[in-house]
Design goal:
Strand content: 15-25%
Number of helices: 4
Structural class: alpha/beta
Helix content: 25-40%
Number of strands: 8
Strand order of the largest sheet: 3-2-1-4-7
Order of helices and strands: HEEEHEHEEHEE
Amino acid sequence: MDPTRFPLVRPDILEAIQQPDVLLQIGPSYIASLEVPTQTASASWSGFSQALIEQLVPAAIEAGVTVIDARECPIEPYRKLVVCGPMVAVGPSRAWRIDGARHSLSSLTTTDYAPLYAAIGATVHNMPLSSGEPQAIAA
């Protein structure tokens, strides 16, 4: 990836988005978060400017990152999904406990999480392929 094409994106972020299982979420009002798995948990970045997001999105798509772009989503279904859950689990699966529950504190893998946003009108780039039934994960 040529960093000169994305001058506003810091080199450490460009490096991070080239790892597997990375998730970039953009919500209404350009609120964005970038989740990157590490060996023991995940690292995250947020607080991006609108100009940076405009460069980060194409860089992330090019790198194969799952990008959930909900900027144009209807606000009510978006709020319901964000408030009522589930959350996304990014990181090593050995740290998760699967119990099948779905509540505001339960989590899903990116594979099962991204289609929920697609169903409410978000644009999902590089959607991971589902392996079957969604797996709920609760801490």
